[in-house]
């Protein structure tokens, strides 16, 4: 299918790349349908709204720069999207790229997607280690030093 994107104009995506967030994302509750595709630069991805062309998020797998990342999530939170075991879940963090300053990732509000059905939701972690702004490259370098 053809999708109008914020970053690349019109692109072709496979139907299997569709992701539904029945509750939306925090701050974007009314937008429920997205597509997930690779960004030009790895290890990033785009989560592009199918409903509002200018709504798109850069996302990353948080385990790439924080191998110690843990999601202490109540099973009830993800049961409604069909996740019954961790291997059924894809986990992403929304990336912020400010005009000045470091690129950060939100580890407090992970995106949890059922890899089989493409249905997801955004969680909220209460563990004080996980903040809304983790400096990706700084933490990647720190991880190499350990």
Architecture overview:
With 146 residues, the protein is mainly beta. The protein has a single domain (2-145), classed as Roll (BH3618-like). Helices cover 10% and strands 32% of the residues. The protein is built from two helices and eleven strands. Strands 3, 4, 5, 6, 7, 8, 9, 10 and 11 form a nine-stranded antiparallel sheet that branches. Strands 1-2 form a two-stranded antiparallel ribbon. Strand 1 and strand 2 (9-12) form a beta hairpin. The model has no long low-confidence stretch (mean pLDDT 93).
Overall tally of structural domains? 1
The CATH topology is given as: BH3618-like
- SSE string: EEEEEEHEEEEEH
CATH architecture: Roll
Largest sheet data: 9 strands, antiparallel
CATH class: Mainly Beta
Spans of at least 5 consecutive residues whose pLDDT stays below 50 are none
Write down the overall geometry. Answer: globular
In whole angstroms, how far apart are the ends?
Answer: 44 Å
Using the CA coordinates, give the radius of gyration: 15 Å
Instruction: Classify the helix fraction into a percent range.
Output: 10-25%
Which properties best describe this structure?
single chain; 146 residues; mainly beta; BH3618-like; nine-stranded antiparallel sheet; two-stranded antiparallel ribbon; 2 helices; 10% helix
Topology (SSEs and partners):
Blueprint: E1 2-5, E2 9-12, E3 18-20, E4 33-38, E5 44-49, E6 56-60, H1 75-79, E7 89-96, E8 104-105, E9 111-114, E10 120-122, E11 134-135, H2 136-145
Antiparallel strand pairs: 1-2, 3-4, 4-5, 5-6, 6-7, 7-8, 7-9, 8-11, 9-10
